[in-house]
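Appendix B. Raw example, untouched.
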Amino acid sequence: HFATFATAMATVTAAAKVVLRRSLVVGRSSTPWAVDKASSVRCMSTGTRGARGHGWLKKYRAGLGGRHLQGRYPKDYVPQRLEWNQEVFDLQSSPQLAYLDLMVASDDADAEVVSQRIVMELATTALPLSCQNFMALLQDKDGHGYEGTTVHKLEQVTGVCLGDITGQGGHGGRCHFSVDPRGSFEHEAHLLSHAQPGMVTFMSAGRDQNDSRFLITTKEAPQLDGRFTAFGRVTDGMDSLQDIMTHVFTRRGRPSVDIRVTSCGLL
């Protein structure tokens, strides 16, 4: 038994030496972690930086992370994607406009509450199913549409989230029954990019699970490309949305005051 144990230990020791030799930085240190005294930066001596690389958190907080960290595309792609967006909207013979009137409540009882209108252009030619669902929900006045719903979240890195017609605070939603009685419909082509503020896009809970919830971007959000289906853009009222994002206090993204859709429809 002792001989077997000694043979096993010798095998393990030999394997450990091989691993150690591979992990050493020649002429620097005898440990797997080596410190470059000239730069005072710790580096992994094996040369494998991992999936994210060293300093990923610092870069992420500084906004310098790559696509695998933040989903950001190189800035060189943005002008080209904006040209593609314009080409999609140019397919229409005449623009289809829609509107939302948002009313932001105030903590001051004496303050005057004013509705703010958001006007959107819909890409009905390129994305007919998504636009059909959106327009049907805008026009439904029987309690199954957008009128009376609230903004359930303000995402600082993307935009304004709203459209939960089930009243579950963003955890529910269903498409218009005329589009699909099951409550959700499949994805259409990802033709429009989110690489500009003001894009209107359905927030899908998963593959082919588009319902009534949608997002209006207030910042460049190309990380949403390929995940959500954008179908429109804001043509008037971006100042109102930016004002809401700036001045409404939130707690974990939930607005502290009631932001409600008082009226909506087509123009």
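End of appendix B.
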